[in-house]
Amino acid sequence: MGGRVRGVLLIFSLMLSSGCSGFTRRTKIDDGIIGLETVYVRSSTAELALNLAELHRGDPVEILERRGDQWVKVRTVEGVQGWIEARAVARKRLVERARALARQLQHIPAQARGHLSGPARLRITPGRASNENVIMVIAGGTPVEIINRQRTLKGSDQLVPKLGSPDQRGSSASPSEEAGTPSSYDEWVQVRLPPSSLVRAGWIYADLVDLDIPSRLVYFQDVYSIVGWFALGQVEDPDIGPVTHYLVLERHRDRRDPGVDFHRLRLFVWDVATHAYKSYWKRIDGILPVLRGGRDQAWVFRVTGYERRTGRRREWSFFVDVGDPKHPVFRRLRSSRPAPPTGKRTDH
Question: Domain 93-210's class?
């Protein structure tokens, strides 16, 4: 008898979820695509809710209601209605745009790596004037690669003009006057997600991304903070083991230049004799992304930035060779697209 009652209750729950028995069919607010490998449509958001249907990555659904960043009510192609976690579904109309963005970014090297400190809304464009640009919610802890950075005016979609842009030509205001105070804008990072993600690119509010700065570099931060880094190969330290050389992008904590992502390039080369890093740096008002070519321990980095005196945008190339850690090469090249030189002179 008890089993029959439970069966009746389950059937009644299915009828309610699918809009049968004369109930009005609910109007969808959006179309979605399932982004997780497997997800269950639930009768409610309660812990002991019934599983009404099983969905898989790529399955289409109709979105009926949103409950914050945690839950979404959906309707399957079979007509079953129920709740799934918000991170499991993406907006269909934005998925193709996000995939096109991922293709554009596929050859750009990661500028930094990190992870989400909590659930975060992945957006197709930077800005939070509304949620119309939200692709989906990404789970906390998800690893990400940082590709670019951008700022918008606080709570809006309006980009903060960058130095040398048409919006600033003819302006007599200083960079800090154009940018205002740090509290007057939102900072965003353009990220690349793991291959298992339904979409692999978009924008996330920067405060929700914790950078995974290499442990040996963390303690070098002072008035400059690390916003990016590139591994340049390793050297074998007989007392420690393999240690990595890095080219690091650093941003001055007190400067408020609106369109500048970093203010210094810093080369860290491990000295086996002293078991410590030696560093060499060059000042440059640069923007992401930084491009690089080369291989092994010799690289050419192409950096876009601004001349400090004029604010004019231009491109520089830097050659870095750490093949001989005792005599590393770090110098700016005259040509923007040079062949790597062969000299071994350190310039810092």
Answer: mainly beta
